[in-house]
Amino acid sequence: MPDLSDGTNDQPFRSDLTAILREFPYEPGRVQARIVAAAAGRQVVQVRVELGILQMECEGRPDGGPSVVDTGDGAGRPLSDPTHAAAARIEAAQVQPRAVAYLALGDAPRALRDADQVLAVLGRLADEGPAVERDWAEGARFSALVFRTRAAAAVCTRQGRSRDAVGAVDVGLKLLHVQATRLGIDDQFETLADVRALRTLRDALQPQLPPAQRAELEQRLLAAVRAENYELAAILRDEL
Question: Is 237 left (phi over 0), alpha (psi -120 to 50) or beta?
């Protein structure tokens, strides 16, 4: 039988996480995140996963180590170096789950900040990295763009800017189509689950007019088109 004592008065092994895990139970199918106080007055983000808790620093590199891509001089390390490129890939893979956690917590600005950071790293890897890292970055960029679009829309929505939220989704869909073309899957674009989900989000964000007001605007739009008053027609179309 293994020795589970710490050698002091036969107390249970101090590193046992059972009590912590029971206090933050796992629920399949949803992102469970929280921000807790840590040492030295700082805060950390925790995400519950099936077999434990993932803990990340709120700022900087999630594991608390020095950033490969942000060295404070705006340049970062050259990602043409295979070692630096691999470290940058790991850093991006750390930041992405923190961004997801922030969005689950309702902190859309920090989710967007992290999403932009991930895309910046992927862009540098795609442009500068060794071939294997370029291929990985191009593939990862699609899902990163999907998340960035959701985060941007959430920022606008939380500020009460519904039209800007719709615009953020439209811009995201255009960027995704460009990336799908780069990946050679543009013929499947409209059938992709992420694309369908973003179109559903756009429909939900689109301000809905009362039926009577909408009918009136539709009649005015039709009349403007018939009169070839395309400037007015464009305004009415935007209102719809």
Answer: alpha
CA 101 to chain centroid:
9
Q: What is the mean pLDDT of residues 94-104?
A: 96
Question: Which is nearest to 148 in space by CA: 183, 122, 127?
Answer: 122
Pairwise pLDDT comparison (6 vs 152), residue with the higher score = 152
Q: Report yes or no: 119 and 137 within 8 Å, Cβ to Cβ.
A: no
What residues contact 157, with CB distance under 8 A and at least 6 apart? 108, 165, 205
104: left (phi over 0), alpha (psi -120 to 50) or beta: alpha
- On the 0-12 / 13-18 / 19+ scale of CB atoms within 10 A, 35 is middle
pTM: predicted TM-score of the whole model, two decimal places: 0.78
Range in 36-45, 87-96, 116-125, 134-143 the model is least confident about: 36-45
Cα 103 to Cα 97: distance, rounded to the nearest angstrom: 10
